[in-house]
Design brief:
The protein is an all-alpha fold and 427 residues long. It folds into two domains: 8-199, Growth Hormone, Chain: A (Up-down Bundle), CATH 1.20.1250.20; 221-427, Growth Hormone, Chain: A. It is built from 16 helices and no strands. The protein has helices at 9-13, 15-46, 49-76, 79-102, 108-136, 142-171, 173-192, 212-223, 226-241, 248-255, 260-279, 282-285, 290-316, 325-355, 358-390, 392-413. It is globular. The relative contact order is 0.15.
Length: 427
């Protein structure tokens, strides 16, 4: 049984990785306090759901811009130094959030400004942090290391918003933001304790310089490497056409006969799948054919969302009216979808880290951040529009079918991806 469970060897055997993982976990949890607190505070100040939605806009745009440049910095400089300074920037922004609350500065504009600056610092930090992991962990332990991050991310997404809401309700916005600031202080300490990680020269013997040209080089490399490109295309297929998150509010209010709590259950179901996959990640990390595993996981995600759409269609027709069965079935298929999403993410992340030369890892991580951040937002727009035109059930079903067909098409277009072997990673 133990061989199917989470492999904690990277945390047990590598002190530098252990500190990085602990710091990242606490900062991810603290960030969820801030996410829920900012939304609640903006709504309290304005009474407008549009104003709350604008928080996402002010967070997304700086993240995309900085993500690309952050990867360039990570390849051109010592990654410990880059990680230290960008983490310090995040710490300062969390302190600013706490300070505005303690000083009773009731301004939506101030909140938007801090959110934008925080997101910019995060965009610089995440590619650097992602490129650090392969320098700390042996190649054979990369899947286990990524599974650990997947587990903690899923756990934080599950419990963080709840703990954040309870903190706001019980202690107010001040302490919610203060918890986040304290969590980033630990993350800052963890980054400070890392060993020096100077840039490794590329094949031409030179190191890159941060800037626009460096970013372009990253895109050029990705365009000529089919296995790496395939990981991005599979992710976009799943996130753009088969991400049902935008349907949850209308389903909670109507088809599933619930309320905001129902929306929370559907959201938590996806996150719990990620936790479940992390706990039993020993099942997946021993697979060497990461290409096959990734494609199969995305296809299985599409099948799960098809099942979700089918449940919604049946429930819309009156099945299970006045019972909990439609909600139970919806949550079960979303848990399964969350498992598949996490497995896909595990393989995609490991391929990206293992098959990319170290001199380009930061820039590829930057592109990855942009895709991960932007893909679900595009998916929300596509699924939201589909739900308006077709109804939520048909929107989920049709989108998932498109995703499944795209997976089949991509596998046919790039057959080499199915032969990708973690023992001989080729980009």
């Amino acid at each position: 049984m133990a061989r199917f469970l989470l492999d904690i060897a990277p945390v047990r055997d590598i002190p530098a990785f252990r500190r990085l993982w602990i710091g990242s976990t606490l900062s991810m949890l603290g960030s969820q306090f801030t996410v829920i607190a900012i939304s609640l505070e903006v709504f309290e100040l304005t009474g407008s759901t549009f104003a709350v939605g604008m928080v996402g806009f002010f967070a997304l745009v700086p993240l995309i811009i900085a993500g690309l440049y952050g990867g360039s910095i990570g390849d051109a400089t010592d990654r410990r130094s880059a990680g230290l300074w960008t983490t310090f920037g995040l710490f300062i922004m969390t302190v600013a959030l706490a300070a505005h609350a303690w000083l009773d500065i009731a301004s939506v504009a101030v909140l938007y400004g801090i959110v934008a600056l925080h997101s910019f610092a995060q965009g610089l930090n995440q590619p650097v942090r992602g490129a650090i992991v392969p320098r700390l962990v042996p190649m054979r332990q990369l899947p286990a290391a990524n599974a650990l991050f997947q587990l903690t991310m899923g756990s934080c997404l599950m419990v963080g918003p709840l703990l954040g809401a309870l903190t706001v309700a019980g202690l107010g916005f001040r302490w919610a933001y203060t918890v986040d600031a304290l969590s980033f202080a630990v993350s800052l300490w963890a980054m400070y304790k890392l060993p020096p990680l100077p840039p490794i020269p590329g094949e031409d013997g030179a190191t890159s310089k941060a800037g626009f040209r460096s970013v372009v080089e990253g895109f050029r490399f990705l365009a000529t490497r089919p296995n790496l490109r395939m990981t991005f295309l599979l992710d976009l297929a799943a996130m753009i056409f088969a991400m049902p998150r935008a349907l949850f509010p209308v389903l909670g209010a109507s088809v599933l006969g619930g309320d905001q709590f129902t929306v929370g259950l559907l959201t938590a179901a996806l996150a719990s799948g990620s936790v479940l996959a992390g706990v039993f990640s020993g099942t997946f990390i021993r697979i060497n054919h990461h290409g096959r595993g990734c494609a199969a996981a995305v296809a299985a995600w599409a099948v799960c969302i098809m099942a979700f759409g089918a449940v919604i269609l049946v429930a819309s027709g009156g099945w299970g009216r006045d019972t909990a069965w439609p909600l139970v079935m919806s949550c079960l298929v979303l848990v399964a979808a969350g498992v598949m999403d996490s497995v896909s993410m595990l393989f995609r992340t490991t391929i990206l880290q293992a098959a990319t030369p170290d001199s380009l890892r930061g820039r590829l991580q930057g592109i990855f951040i942009v895709v991960v951040a932007g893909g679900p937002r595009l998916g929300d727009a596509v699924m939201g529009t589909g739900g308006q035109w077709l109804g939520p059930g048909f929107a989920a079903l049709v989108g998932a079918v498109i995703c499944f067909l795209l997976v089949l098409l991509l596998v046919r277009m790039f057959p080499g991806f199915m032969r990708y072997d973690a023992r001989d990673p080729q980009p």
